[in-house]
Amino acid sequence: MKSINKHLPIRITRTPLLSVIVPCFQAETSLRRAINSIVQQGWRQDDLEIVLSVDDGRDYGWAAKIWPQTTICTNLSLGTGPGPARNRGILAASGKYLAFLDADDAWQLGYLDALMPVVARHGLAFGMTEVRSSHGDQVLVLGQGQRQLRLQDFGHWPGSFHPVMRRSDSPLFINQPAQDVFHAMVVLAAYGKAAPLMGKARYLLYLNATSVTTSHGFSQRIDRSYRQMLSALKTWPALPAYQQHQMKKALTMRLHWNRRYLAANDRHQGRISFYAFLAETLAQKKN
User: Fold this and answer.
1) Domains of the chain from N-terminus onward
2) Closest by alpha carbon to 119, among 74, 163, 59?
C-alpha cells in the first residue's frame, strides 16, 4: 500500500498504467463491492492503482489487503465534498490513465477490457451507465443504443457518464452538485464532437436510501448548480464556441428535466425517485 499520508507505509512498485479514483465518505458498507468489481477485472496489480480519497477521516487501510497497489489519500479537513476529494485523488495518482468509480457503485465484468484498448488509441472513452435499484434490479441504461457520446446526449440522458482517459487531459472538478457531469462534459468538449461509448462497458450505479441524490432539497441544489455552470461557461478557458453552445444547450435541457421531475414528485407526494421518473418518461417517449 502506498500513501501520501506519511504515517502509513509505502509500497514501491513500478508506475501503474491506470489509476482508479474512488472518493470515500461513509463508505464502509459499499466500498468492498466497488473494490471487488475492480479486482474482478483481472488486471495485474502492477498495472492498476486504486486511489482512495478519504473525506470522512475513517480508516480504509483494510482495502490494501484486497488490492495491495492502493494509495490512501487523506485530508485534514473533513466533508469537503466529492469534487475536492476527486481532485486530491487525481493529484495523488501515478497512472498514465484515469478511471473514476464512486464508492457505492461498481463496474460490470469486462469494463476495462472494453474501454482501455479504445482509450489507448483515442485518449478518451465512456461506458454506459446502468442504473440499478438497491436490490440490483435494472432501472434504466443511460446511452443505450448509441455508439458515441456527444455533448447533446448529456441533455437527453440527464445522468452521469464516467470517462476513462489520459491523466494529462483531466481538468480538476468544480465543488458543487453534479460536478462529475460538468467534468465529463468539459473533457468531452475538449476532446471533440463525440467520444466512443462502449455498450460492453457498464458502469453500475446503485440507488440507495442514503444516496446524496435522494437527500432532502437535492433537486433544488442541482437546479442552482446547473445555473451556476451556465454562468461559469462564459469564462471557461479554451473551449471552442461550438462546444460551449452545445454545453449550454445540454445544461439547459438538464434544468428542464429537473424542473419536470420536481413537478412530478409533487404529484407523487415525494415518492418517486429521479431515475424512476426518467425511466418512465423515456419509455413513454419511445412508445
Assistant:
1) 1-104 (3.90.550.10), 108-287 (no CATH)
2) 163
